Write a sequence for this structure.
């Protein structure tokens, strides 16, 4: 299987063609996905290409294949998986509620912002709000408290990293569901972006940056991989290539800005297609130490007992 | 600006009341000097240990403590044993403090603490602290003691439960990180940062080191030092320690020493065993004659 290449486009300077670049990313990824699926020995099933899957494959294709159907899909809402979604929704709602004619005032209080949102999240929503409403109805105080803790950390880290008042051109991702894209004619493959916010207005010139906020953890390589994936996913789902991807880390207070160019889009496209390729390979071959890639993840990997490269990593 | 009391604070509530109008502080120069020294120490350690930014030395309060206390234990890894009774009760007390912060309208209980732990993926407490279990009464007494000293915290303090903090040194070749039980204030609020650590068991002086390390990490991240480190112990003790430059300097010296020990170990040095009260629970004990010989 061959990785897609994105034909060269002028993404820098005045001649930036952000729409054309996104079109070419879509063509390249669609071709890569089609080629991958054509080599499958049977039906692959639904493939959801999220940043989690993309980073898993980038870190160790063998471990990704071995995680199986349970590991490939969304694990369901929990205090851990819902923290960022609730934090983002709560922050967006609180920012909407500010009457700027009265001045911004002191920084929003993260825990209050989150508690308010949790108290009023509407039932019947298929996303995180509906889940929170169910927790309320069930009186699951433990999960609600843990969720408030995680979402509060997310909001606090975001506000601390970007400062208060937040940049005037920053917009928090308001929707409960991330934007998604499907290659034409391939119903079972979905690519979803995971950006938490954007800086600047989305226009044909592509003078906007996608923002990913991580409360903590992760090394430099993983951070760069995440930004690379979001660049391609942003181009695929919005039809306009972003100018940059900014990754902020709440634990370090750092913001890393990855300028998006042809190379970044090509690398991000390869990450997207690699997920589909590995799902195809997994039809015939699950975990196999032959292509295991040792990394710090080996410490927690369930395949470590059967993986000499992982064991060799101290 | 609110009047600042001259009476030393004795409780967390006292401290927060005293500091509410104290402002965020401004000590960027000496914090930057600490960072400079630690960067140099980390660079030296990385030279010896062979770490780089892609695969750095990762330190936590636990590894720092063991590197200094017993290098043999530091390299022994994690114990596969289920947590002991003291550790389990400690988890419950720690969780109770977090629940009290997150849900201030109700006093925490063992059940609410266990539910919080279960929601964060720690299931071990559920069975062993269930109604009628032998540990239940002791856990309940300690949670009640904690609830008695735990204040309702003004949201303007930005209470953050299990707040992650990480510092990259020597260009990322060494990282030091952890999660504060509770962090309060600090940028971008208009209040000084306060570090709160919750401990089970009985107070002993060594408990202070964790708060000092976290105060150092917050200072390095935010460029301004926390005003106090508070250790709340389930035996009723509340230790409030103003953060002075000498305390952070000492914490930085300990961290530099831990990095040097880790570097020597990575370069092949034999880890020295230093018998201590942790020996009975140490996973290295079966192969450690000094640890086996340790007696209280």
């Amino acid at each position: 299987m061959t990785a897609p290449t994105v034909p060269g486009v002028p993404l820098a300077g005045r001649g930036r063609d952000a729409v054309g670049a996104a079109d070419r990313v879509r063509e390249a990824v669609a071709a890569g996905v089609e080629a991958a699926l054509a080599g499958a020995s049977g039906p692959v099933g639904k493939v959801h290409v999220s940043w989690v899957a993309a980073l898993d494959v980038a870190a160790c294709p063998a471990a990704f294949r071995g995680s199986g159907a349970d590991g490939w899909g969304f694990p369901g809402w929990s205090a851990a998986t819902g923290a960022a979604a609730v934090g983002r929704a709560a922050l967006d709602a609180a920012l909407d509620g500010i009457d700027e004619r009265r001045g911004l005032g002191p920084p929003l209080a993260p825990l209050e912002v989150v508690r308010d949102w949790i108290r009023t999240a509407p039932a019947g929503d298929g996303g995180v709000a509906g889940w929170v409403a169910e927790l309320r109805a069930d009186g699951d105080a433990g999960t609600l408290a843990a969720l408030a803790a995680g979402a509060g950390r997310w909001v606090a880290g975001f506000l601390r990293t970007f400062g208060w008042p937040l940049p005037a051109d920053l917009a928090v991702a308001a929707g409960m569901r991330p934007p998604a894209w499907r290659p034409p004619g391939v119903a079972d493959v979905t690519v979803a972006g995971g950006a938490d916010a954007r800086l600047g207005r989305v226009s044909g010139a592509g003078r906007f940056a996608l923002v990913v906020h991580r409360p903590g953890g992760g090394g430099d390589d993983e951070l760069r991989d995440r930004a690379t994936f979001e660049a391609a996913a942003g181009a695929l789902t919005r039809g306009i290539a972003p100018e940059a991807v900014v990754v902020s880390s709440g634990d370090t207070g750092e913001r890393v800005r990855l300028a998006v160019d042809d190379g970044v889009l090509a690398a991000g496209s390869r990450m997207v297609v690699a997920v589909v390729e590995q799902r195809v390979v997994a039809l015939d071959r699950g975990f196999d130490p032959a292509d295991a890639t040792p990394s710090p993840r080996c410490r927690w990997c369930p395949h470590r007992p059967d993986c000499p490269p992982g064991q060799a990593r101290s | 600006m609110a009047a600042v009391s001259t009476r030393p604070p004795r409780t967390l509530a006292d401290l927060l009341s005293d500091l509410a109008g104290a402002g965020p502080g401004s000590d960027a120069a000496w914090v930057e000097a600490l960072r400079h020294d630690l960067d140099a120490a980390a660079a030296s350690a990385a030279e010896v240990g062979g770490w780089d930014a892609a695969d750095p030395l990762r330190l936590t309060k636990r590894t720092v403590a063991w590197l200094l206390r017993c290098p043999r234990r530091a390299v022994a890894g994690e114990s596969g044993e289920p947590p002991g009774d003291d550790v389990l009760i400690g988890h419950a007390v720690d969780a109770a403090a977090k629940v009290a912060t997150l849900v201030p309208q109700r006093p925490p209980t063992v059940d609410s603490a266990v539910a919080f732990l279960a929601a964060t993926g720690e299931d071990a407490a559920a069975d062993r602290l269930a109604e009628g279990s032998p540990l239940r009464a002791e856990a309940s007494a300690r949670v009640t003691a904690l609830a008695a000293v735990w204040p309702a915290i003004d949201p303007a303090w930005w209470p953050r439960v299990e707040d992650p903090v990480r510092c990259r040194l020597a260009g990322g070749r060494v990282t030091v990180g952890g999660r504060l039980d509770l962090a309060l204030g600090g940028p971008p609020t208009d209040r000084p940062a306060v570090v709160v650590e919750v401990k089970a068991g009985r107070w002993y002086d060594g408990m202070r080191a964790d708060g000092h390390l976290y105060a150092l990490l917050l200072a390095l991240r935010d460029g301004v030092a926390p005003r106090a480190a508070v250790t709340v112990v389930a035996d009723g003790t509340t230790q409030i320690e103003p953060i002075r430059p000498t305390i952070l300097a000492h914490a930085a010296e300990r961290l530099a020493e831990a990095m040097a020990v880790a570097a020597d170990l990575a370069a092949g040095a034999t880890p020295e065993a230093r018998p201590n009260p942790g020996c009975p629970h140490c996973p290295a004990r079966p192969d450690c004659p000094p640890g086996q010989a340790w007696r209280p």
Summary: The radius of gyration of chain A is 20 Å. Chain A touches chain B through 39 residues (CB under 8 Å). The CA atoms of residues 110 and 202 of chain A lie 28 Å apart.
